[in-house]
Amino acid sequence: MTVIDFSHLSPEQRLQLIGELCDSLEPENVPLSPAWKVELAQRSRDLRAGKGQSIPLAQAMDELHRRNR
Length: 69
Hints:
Number of helices: 3
Oligomer: single chain
Shape: flat
Strand content: under 5%
Number of strands: 0
Structural class: mainly alpha
Helix content: 55-70%
Largest sheet: none
């Protein structure tokens, strides 16, 4: 296996790369633990029942950036 050194990338660049790698996977190729499957099913039921909480992506990103300052 080839080892790739990513130390020259900034944390933001590495996170972007992680996101791009994750986005490149087909959902059926992402293994989920039984606990995650239960959690996702519950969240899906909550959203369909109008119980879920959601906020716009931009707002979520702003909150994450504020927390990490």
